[in-house]
Amino acid sequence: MLTPSESKRLIAKGIVKLEDFKKAFDSGLIILSRSTTTAFIIEELYNISVDKEKYACGIVTPCGTCETDPRFRIKKPIIIEKGEISEQASFIDTLKRMDDDDVFVKSGNAIDPWGNAGVFIGDLRGGEIGVALNFIVKKNIKLIIPVGLEKSIPISITDAAKVSSLKIDYTMGMPVKLLPLPGRVITEKEAIEILANNRVKVTPIGAGGVAGAEGSVVLIIDGEKEGVQMAFQAIKKVKGERPLWPLKMHCSRCIHSETCTLRDK
């Protein structure tokens, strides 16, 4: 059983072990779009501790869909070149330099029964991913999409995207549209299989919980003894990962107050 935070840590561990990711880290370019999962990836890559809440941008809170306070979050995506974080690199210039050996990581907000993922966007430009998609598609840049199984939806991403809209009369938080993403999805299932050297099969059998376990997933791991033990050891290392509490934008600074039904609540 994994809580959402434990899942994020496990997925990050799986991503940094991917051959495509390791190759780009050693000799190419990686862009990590802003998200809490990006913070976990940074910690796994460099064996450091960061303020993970500052990496969040768009968030879902008890009040609804929202975004973090821009005064207290990192200002741009993380750009890594040949293993080193580049503080000065331009987002657009880096995209122009990337090719099919390079990697862009963007967390998802939804995954459908067929393994397709989508992400929320809060404006027609689509934020960072809206800008990046043109480059990703045209230049065949590898898009990796971390998304926890807690974000499973029972219909196709395509159908969900069709009904989602930024033109909403009443919202809990800010209106969002679901944008389908064309890339490699990494959930807890794929992460565990990667960490066990593809010697196990992982099957989700349940979800949800209480007392802090809301959003959890329950998984069955099947395989030969050595592979299962390898997977279980990796999972035990993430147990106890603390929940995240990003600071949401104050209602007085939000431009969506006209549609939000929960303003100042």
The assigned structural class equals: alpha/beta
Q: How big is the Rg? A: 18 Å
**Helix proportion:** 25-40%
- The neighbouring-strand order within the major sheet is 5-4-1-6-9-11
Walkthrough of the structure:
The protein is α/β, with parallel strands linked by helices and 265 residues long. It has one domain (4-250). Helices cover 30% and strands 21% of the residues. It contains eight helices and 13 strands. The strands form four sheets. The chain has a six-stranded mixed beta sheet with strand order 5-4-1-6-9-11, with helices on both faces. It is globular, with a radius of gyration of 18 Å. It starts with a helix and ends in a 29-residue tail after the last helix. The mean pLDDT is 94.
